[in-house]
Design brief:
about 110 residues; alpha/beta; five-stranded parallel sheet
Length: about 110
């Protein structure tokens, strides 16, 4: 069974992470504040440039936490610190999406 992963924030780090996870077959959903970016992630997909090749990887994305369904095995927080509270408040109101949250800053500390 593939893990369900929520990526909160689909900027440079979150977008690339979501694309890699989706391409690897994981069940990925993205929560991002930019409505136009969300629309494009859903169709035609996140534009992904890698080693000179461009592809579009469709990713289920929403700009509203109320649209998220079910439970996630992991949630990756890929936001800059000033945006964390604004992004997390709707998730807390709907109930925690998962038990394991990984922030970009924690991942950076682990890898360095």
């Amino acid at each position: 069974m593939n893990e369900r992963i929520l990526v909160v924030g689909a900027g440079a780090i979150g977008g690339v992470t979501a694309a890699h996870l989706a391409r690897a077959g994981h069940d990925v959903a993205v929560l991002d504040a930019n409505t136009e970016h969300v629309r494009l992630m859903n169709a035609p997909g996140l534009r992904f440039d890698e080693l000179g090749a461009t592809s579009h990887i469709p990713i289920v994305a929403t700009d509203n936490a109320d649209n998220l369904e079910g439970h996630f095995d992991y949630a990756l927080l890929t936001l800059k610190a000033p945006y964390l509270e604004v992004a997390l408040a709707p998730l807390v109101r709907r109930g925690p999406p998962c038990q394991d949250l990984v922030r970009h800053s924690e991942a950076t500390e682990i890898t360095h």
